[in-house]
Amino acid sequence: VQLVESGGGWVQPGGSLNLTCVVSGLDFGRMYMYWYRQPLGKERELVARITAPGPTKWIEDPVKGRFTVSRDNDKNSLYLHMNKLEVDDTAVYYCKTAQYWGQGTQVTVSS
Known about the structure:
single chain; 111 residues; mainly beta; seven-stranded mixed sheet
């Protein structure tokens, strides 16, 4: 099983980034997927969730209205679209399903 995130980088406040997580070794179309993030020195926190059928999506309050989550089951891919980024969004972003985690991708928001 592999989860591989990409799309992180540096962006100025107010900017946008799109993260991708490609999953292999699982029946992706049946999996409930999550995005988490972990700022330096802080706990890992949930950012977004998306079900398999439907899909139904949840965005956590700190990023609601700025981030959206989506998936493409044909591409075994999970996405996090991040707009109006703030300095406090700086973190390593991880995708997760069941007990499996990706390696993370760094997002840095600074001027």
